[in-house]
Write a structure and sequence with these properties.
Chain B: Keywords: Signal. By secondary structure, chain A is an all-alpha fold. Chain A contains 13 helices and no strands. The radius of gyration of chain A is 24 Å and the shape is globular. In chain B, the strands form 4 sheets. In chain B, strands 1, 8, 9, 10, 11, 12, 13, 14, 15, 16, 17 and 18 form a 12-stranded mixed sheet that branches. Chain B has a 4-stranded antiparallel sheet with strand order 4-5-7-6. The chains are: A mainly alpha (344), B alpha+beta (543).
């Protein structure tokens, strides 16, 4: 039964990816300019080279052929090159994507670490001063525009107090060889003699972007958890547990936590999409060299191949994560396995 | 020539400004203990187009390579403005002014990098290669990387040089067609860099462009890595011929927003920044940990009349219009006082500056009278074209135009302000569609010819730098005559006559010479503003 679910989800993943690839392929034609140039990013090539490249991408044949070549190219990492950088887009994406994932992952981890326990506290203390206090705080955190929050953090911690740097991932004086794209892993793998100093610098650079993302995301996680626990606590089996004489702590730990978390885990996965959008804004403000920053630069410069590849990469990441969290939710929540289709 | 950047006022930037204005002093440096001291970080304003300044005249390109990676035969001393030896240890000009002989320095080593290992030191072949590349269209490297050498072609240097001869391994001779006393100055500009002939020969036919992308030179730094929109990394050239003082690392952190550059300077993420905005200068001055250097720049902002159009073909009308505006107020309002009133084309730092030049004073009553005499009636309408971009010589042409609109209305003239996107703007100016324009000029070398010739000679109308469309045979002959003499006092006579003519004819109204600014942290020593071109980091030290 579980295997069938996995297969169904994978099918969904593959189909969605195909639809996305069709959409991104159609962008080649929808963007202004020569479709072949939009596809390959090769702007200044001779007539002869042009003909060769056209043949290589099936431009002498039907759209279907072209799409087939496009798909093959995507699979082997031939995503074309950007207008402005003239570096293969795949290289750029594989360098910027880990930076975004790293930032978002820390933020999501911290948000869960902060949001879930606080949500339980507030849910358990429903309609009491603690609940109201936490709820108020979460409304503030939730409704603050993230760019404003980031700027306030910079104003206070960088410009006023001078504690934290305001741009980039690590001081440019450190040159960390690119291996995985995850800065701490790369520092660890490198054979530099100033590893600890580099790690310290990377950590300092990470604090403010992560904090701005966490404040907003943790508020959402908190609200989801709180709501869920309130629902669970009013259910029959909780009342039954109380009548059996269990203490508050026992009731919450044995029956509340798991039952409250199960329905919201897929929602955390959905939050990742919102988180990634916020991360893009944060990346621009903190000059974080992630995919969001890169994509926004590409949009500024009307770098069509880069926009196409960036949009495809980001949407695929979101889909993969969404499907993964749904699978995870199914894995830990047996009640949902009965649903035959994906609309859980 | 245009080395200031267009400013984009994005939302983020506005927020930056707000945050900066809220800023209170009292900051400690970030991570002083972790950041290695041997590196210098410079927050630059944009991406260089190439790493060979022969190919581009933009200041961003020369800042990134001219003095970091390369050397020239001769240099301008940034303090005195005199020509000093570079890779040529001495030189000799023949009596007829046609033959220039250069004695080259021995034992100068090129950069040793992962992509090229030199086997010999610098010699005459490198000079021949570097000059012939832009001079001879049939040269194997002439058409590499676009084949445009804008600086040399704008001055027609290709036709000035008849031949470049190798006398021996360390002596070369340049033969000119006619005497040209600005010739040495042209060889000392940022653009006359010396490349490695050996490196060029080592490149296969498919990879010739590497010469300009992965540069090899003799300068204090060697190229290490460049990522567009992110950074440029340089490493110290350990065998630099001049000294061993250069920092171990030099990094350009590419930061287009000027307010963000300032913020990074404050937190110590940059050691020096490019182009601080005029509105931020006071913030920098107030802080104990920052230094602001200022120097009058080699530039001039002016108001040019289209002298090919009536009534602006009448010098009397032009004089009247010049009298109707109060330049001091304009300078105060537009440059925030960071510029000096321009009386002529040349700024004070030029050796040909004429201190006793008369300025046209603000006199609206006389202006009205002159206009009446020339038959300009109350309610006459003209346009002022205001350039859409920010330049050192005029940081806000639009605002200046608005102020002038007000002044001119007091003498009964209605002004329409016109502006187009920058490329279209220049294109239409070249066609002469304007009545008058607010624009300016930044010079590339210290020679007065670099102001007088492109701005007002007849031939400059075609090349699109003579915004007044003014053509005077007399003026042209003064400028040409001046080049025939090497003695500055003789040249000066001709420039004085040219100044006299400009003052009588008023083809344009010089407004201001803007200061050049550079901000850096106090730990950084030895960063001197180079009025004759690009920034130099070779002598910089961090304490």
């Amino acid at each position: 039964m579980m295997l069938a679910h996995v297969i169904r989800k994978l099918n969904l993943l593959i189909l969605t990816t195909l639809v996305l690839s069709v959409l991104s392929f159609s962008l080649v034609y929808l963007f202004p300019g020569d479709p072949l140039v939009n596809l390959t990013g090769l702007k200044s090539i001779s007539q002869q080279e042009y003909a060769e490249v056209a043949a290589m991408h099936g431009f002498d044949k039907s759209y279907l052929h072209q799409y087939w070549y496009y798909l093959k190219g995507l699979l082997v990492g031939d995503w074309g090159q950007g207008f402005s950088s003239e570096i293969p887009l795949w290289d750029e994406i594989s360098q910027t994507m880990p930076a975004s994932i790293e930032l978002s992952a820390y933020a999501l981890f911290l948000s869960v670490l902060i949001g879930v326990p606080l949500g339980f506290v507030a849910g358990f203390q429903h309609n009491k001063p603690t609940d109201y206090g936490l709820l108020t705080a979460s409304v503030i955190g939730y409704s603050m525009p993230i760019f404003w929050l980031s700027l306030i953090l910079i104003l206070v911690f960088s410009l006023q107090l001078g504690w934290l740097p305001l741009s980039g991932r690590i001081s440019l004086l450190f040159e960390i060889p690119h291996k995985t794209g995850f800065v701490f892993v790369d520092i660890f793998l490198s054979d530099l003699d100033y590893k600890s100093a580099a790690a310290k610098s990377a950590f300092q650079h990470l604090i403010m972007p992560t904090a701005s993302l966490t404040i907003v995301t943790a508020s959402i996680v908190f609200r989801l958890t709180r709501r869920s626990l309130i629902d669970v606590m009013s259910s029959n089996y909780i009342q039954a547990a109380y009548t059996r004489g269990l203490s508050d702590f026992q009731v919450v730990m044995r029956h509340g936590v798991r039952n409250a978390l199960l329905p919201i885990i897929p929602l955390f996965g959905m939050q990742f999409a919102v988180l990634l959008t916020n991360a893009m804004i944060v990346e621009v403000i903190f000059s974080w060299p992630g995919i969001g920053n890169w994509l926004i630069q590409a949009i500024y410069q009307r770098d069509y191949p880069a926009i196409r590849a960036g949009v495809l990469a980001v949407s695929m990441l979101v889909i993969i994560l969404t499907v993964a969290t749904e699978l995870l939710a199914k894995l830990i929540n047996p009640t949902q396995r009965g649903n035959a289709y994906a609309e859980s | 020539m245009n080395n200031a950047m267009r400013e984009r006022y994005s939302l983020a930037q506005v927020c930056w400004l707000i945050s900066l204005s809220l800023y209170l002093s009292g900051c400690s440096d970030i991570g002083e203990d972790v950041v290695p001291k041997e590196g210098v970080i410079y927050c630059s304003e944009g991406n260089p187009l190439t790493f060979n300044p022969q190919l581009d005249t933009s200041g961003t390109t020369s800042d990134a390579s001219a003095h970091q990676i390369y050397d020239r035969l001769i240099n301008f001393d940034p303090l005195s403005g005199l020509i000093v030896p570079g890779l040529a240890s001495s030189w000799l000009v023949s009596d007829d002014g046609l033959t220039y002989t250069f004695q080259l320095r021995r034992g100068v080593r090129f950069h040793d990098t992962p992509y090229f290992t030199p086997t010999r030191t610098f010699n005459a072949d490198d000079v021949l290669f570097s000059i012939n590349r832009w001079r001879l269209p049939e040269h194997p490297f002439h058409n590499v990387s676009g084949g445009e050498y804008p600086y040399f072609s704008s001055l027609g240097l290709r036709d000035v040089i008849v031949d470049v001869k190798r006398i021996n391994g360390y002596r070369i001779e340049l033969i000119l067609k006619q005497p040209d006393s600005s010739f040495l100055a042209n060889l000392a500009t940022d653009f006359a860099v010396l490349l490695s002939a050996e490196y060029a020969q080592s490149l296969g036919p498919e990879e010739k462009e590497k010469l300009d992308r992965y540069p090899i030179g003799t300068g204090p730094f060697k190229f290490h890595k460049y990522r567009k929109d992110r950074f440029i990394r340089y490493a110290k050239h350990n065998d630099y011929w001049q000294h061993d003082l250069a920092p171990e690392k030099l990094i350009y952190d590419i930061t287009p927003s000027s307010s963000q550059r300032l913020a990074k300077l404050m937190t110590g993420e940059c050691d020096a920044i490019a182009f601080p905005a005029h509105s931020e200068l006071d913030t920098i001055r107030e802080r104990a940990d920052l230094r602001l250097d200022e120097k009058p720049g080699l530039n001039v902002g002016f108001w040019a009349f289209n002298t090919s159009k009536p009534p602006f073909n009448n010098p009397k009308v032009r004089r009247a219009l010049a009298m109707a505006i109060d330049k001091n107020t304009l300078i105060e309002a537009v440059y925030f006082g960071s510029a000096v009133n321009a009386r002529g084309l040349l700024p004070e730092s030029s050796w040909a500056y004429q201190a006793d030049l008369n300025d046209i004073n603000y006199n609206p009553v006389l202006a009205r009278q002159l206009l009446n005499e020339s038959g300009i009636k109350e309610g006459f309408t003209m346009n002022i074209w205001a350039m859409p971009v920010q330049r050192a010589y005029n940081p806000d042409a639009r605002k200046m135009a608005e102020l002038m609109q007000n002044y001119l209305s007091q003498v009964g003239i209605t002004v329409n302000i016109v502006s187009y996107e920058w490329t279209a703007f220049r294109e239409r100016l070249k066609q002469g569609l304007h009545d008058s324009v607010l624009i300016g000029w930044s010079a590339d070398n210290g020679d007065p010819d670099n102001f007088y010739r492109p701005l007002l000679t007849c031939s400059a109308i075609d090349s699109g730098t003579n915004r007044a469309m003014w053509c005077s045979e007399q003026y042209d002959s003064f400028i040409d005559q001046a080049l025939k003499y090497t003695e500055t006092s003789q040249r000066n006579q001709y420039y004085r006559m040219a100044n006299q003519l400009i003052a009588e004819q008023v083809p344009l109204v010089p407004i201001a010479h803007a200061y050049r600014y550079r901000a850096h942290r106090k730990e950084l020593q030895g960063l001197i503003i180079n009025p004759f071109g690009a920034i130099r980091f070779g002598d910089v030290q961090k304490q």
